[in-house]
TrEMBL record:
Keywords in alphabetical order: Magnesium, Transferase
The keyword Membrane belongs to this UniProt entry's keyword annotation: no
Pfam families: NTP_transf_3
Record has Calcium as a keyword: no
Gene3D superfamilies named in the record: Spore Coat Polysaccharide Biosynthesis Protein SpsA, Chain A
A GO molecular function held by the record: nucleotidyltransferase activity
UniProt protein name: NTP transferase domain-containing protein
Chain ranges of the MobA-like NTP transferase domain: 9-155
Length: 184
């Protein structure tokens, strides 16, 4: 990614309670659900690839360029996954945070997030800031201070921008088996 090192964190340590467990390895169009987001990240082209996983993760056939980052505190919420991931890429200049249960995310959108200089969130359907999102290293300490089941959008970034997705459908987030079946 040019003169700077950009990492992507793919968060995959959630408990998947609403899904009934093992959501990320559920079949979606012939591949495990998580691979769709991972492959989009790979196609986008980053310098480092980190997949944040829970202690009971059952990810198989993880591509060689991906580093598994264990989150021993996944039950405490999303903030712990962000902290684990950011701590593993402190040497990078920028980080893009994406979710492993968003299989339709577009590589071009991830590249656009990576290209920014300030915090950039994806504009959600309701106009709010959400994921995928990207942050420069100057905000890593703030991300490392997140607590509970909160994402980075819960923090205030005066210089943050919102990036419209190329297609609102790419923001589909799988929480339940019904969500997954509606994507087919």
């Amino acid at each position: 990614m040019a003169d700077r090192r950009v990492a992507v964190l793919l968060l995959g340590a959630g408990q998947a309670r609403r899904f009934g467990g093992d959501k990320l390895v559920a079949d979606f169009r012939g591949r495990p659900l998580w691979r769709w987001a991972a492959d989009a990240c790979t196609e986008a082209g980053f310098d480092e690839y980190c997949l944040v996983v829970g202690e009971d993760a059952r990810f198989a056939d993880v591509p060689a360029q991906w580093t598994l980052v264990p989150n021993r505190h996944a039950a405490s919420g999303m903030a712990s996954s962000i902290r684990c991931g950011v701590a593993s890429v402190r040497q990078c200049d920028r980080v893009v945070i994406a979710l492993a249960d968003m299989p339709l995310v577009a590589p071009a959108h991830l590249r656009a997030l990576a290209a920014g200089d300030d915090p950039v969130f994806t504009r959600q359907a309701d106009g709010s800031a959400g994921v995928p999102a990207a942050f420069p290293a100057r905000y890593f300490d703030r991300l490392l201070a997140l607590e509970g089941d909160r994402g980075a959008a819960s923090l205030s970034f005066a210089d943050a921008a919102l990036l419209d997705p190329p297609d609102a459908g790419m923001l589909a987030d799988v929480d339940t088996p019904v969500d997954l079946s509606q994507l087919d």
